[in-house]
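Complex record, two chains
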Amino acid sequence: MDDSRTEEYLRLLAANERAVVAYVYSLVPVRADAEEILQEARVVMWKKFESFQSGTNFAAWAKKIALGLILNYRRSNRRKRIVPTEDAFIEAVAAEIDRIDAEGDSRSEALEICVGKLPQAHREMVLWRYFEELEVAEIADRSKRTESAVYRMLSRIRKMLQECIESETTGGVRV
Amino acid sequence: MSEEEKFHAAINGELDCKELERFQAKLLDDPDALSRYAELSWLNGRLHAIGDKLPELTREVRSVGQQRKVPVWLSLASAGIGALVTLAFVLFHGGQFEPVATIVEAEGCRWEGSDLPTAKGSRLPAGRLSLVAGMATLKFDSGAEIVMEAPAVLEVESKMRCRLIEGSLIADVPESAHGFTIDAPEMEVVDLGTRFGLTTNQFGKSHVMVFEGEVEVTRNGFEETTSLKTGNTLVNGADLMVPDEEILRDVEPDHRQGWSQIESSKDSFVRFGAEQKNYGSNPLMMVKETSLAPNNRRRGIISFDLTSLGDREIEQAELFLDVQSSGLGFSTLVPDSKFSIYGVIDDSLDDWGENEVLWQTLPATTDEGLIPELTKKVGSFEILRGASAIAAVKVSSPELTAWLREDANRIVTFLVVRETGEYESQGLVHAFATREHPTAKGPTLYFTLR
């Protein structure tokens, strides 16, 4: 592949990195698995980049590759027993995620506003989980809580964010 | 477990194989539930994807050592395409990040957790600067000049715009840069040709003071903009509040062998101009002395309960105070400041109420100052202009140790006062974390026993 094609790949990957990361994590919430899949996805995309047609939708192309890898990863993952409905379930959720993504950026924008509105203790928790990417056990250790208390708090935070996104996107008024 | 709790449990990875199977089968049968679950999954995925932006979005300051575990591009390198990583960085830094400002002065500066170059003369693209000690001057390409006073976190956005996350700055804006805008928590300040100061603290309180000229302030929740002219000042934001639940506290382990610690049992401050107001639950203890604006005089008070020590005698002691940004006043207008700590002699005064104490009822004091017969100076310290907020104050002296040894009822009360005044009436208010502070360590006594 020549230099200009390499540059094109890097530029497209950078521009769509967040979309791909969001997609994989929404289907594979376990960080270690998601990261392994993402890493492989970047390599596979690079290898298959010759088949990508410039000017078409890179994010859609990348997501398709990622979905294939996710389904594959699940099957080849011998450490866990496979749930028979797994493939159908992931594909069904993936279709719903595509639908949400197709609605545009207003939900993502609302989320960015909403995290700033969380109470301080919750913001700290969000940073531990999603910025520092700590495991729940590590957060429990750091915040002197039990693991189940951390799970409950993370659930509560996601719920608050969802409610906030709801009101941000339906009200039509940006504060 | 409700449906919603099940969703969260699935995302948290808490369901075992059996539960997961049942869960998936149920959702495949119920398109509405599947759609609700997908929305939650989408949210979780999106949060992971914007992880690197979260400190900015939550306006939380991260110190060094708290970093993301895996930078995005490192994963490329470990995937075996190392050569591309360099190219990636060239692309990013060459393309998207045009310089928009220059660091023109950086005396005595210490930086931490900045993602921009910090040496004097450095050209700055958009990004974050975090100054922990000293004062630094930035010149934006529009001509606007900003002096950052440590501790401060500033985001450079463009040659006409920046964002003050925390701390203080003074802006000097020539005609060429009219319209220069500074975002602060809950407000936006647009310059109309002027010199002005802006200061903010992590609890979202901001304070604008116009030294010369005019600025326009837009506040969240207010439709009208406010115009401020020379000499005008505006304080914005909720009163300092701590969240009503789940206070997190970074307990620093005491690494010194054989030392114990006791945290304050009560701490507060009082203000001359707010005689009926009690600040007992405030996360900050604010201290200030001034003859120019007497209403802004503030004094701090702290008690430690040593009764758990019984008869044991203290051998050495050290008083620890964590310096915080108050969000009030400007460091530039205050010289290096001396503080004194006084012990309250009369044990009957130890029972002051944290949620009751007011300026008039502050033990052992009058409007003018401390009552000499009732107080004894046990230590002093100095905070330099633009001093680091991370270096906490540690006071130790033979007088302090003797004081702790000799106190009869083993409850000791200290008053914290500033001895230094200010040059102009909007000078800095110093602040120290109290035991109510959600993240910083409150006043603490470290000691060894005989």
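Note: DSSP finds seven helices and 22 strands in chain B.
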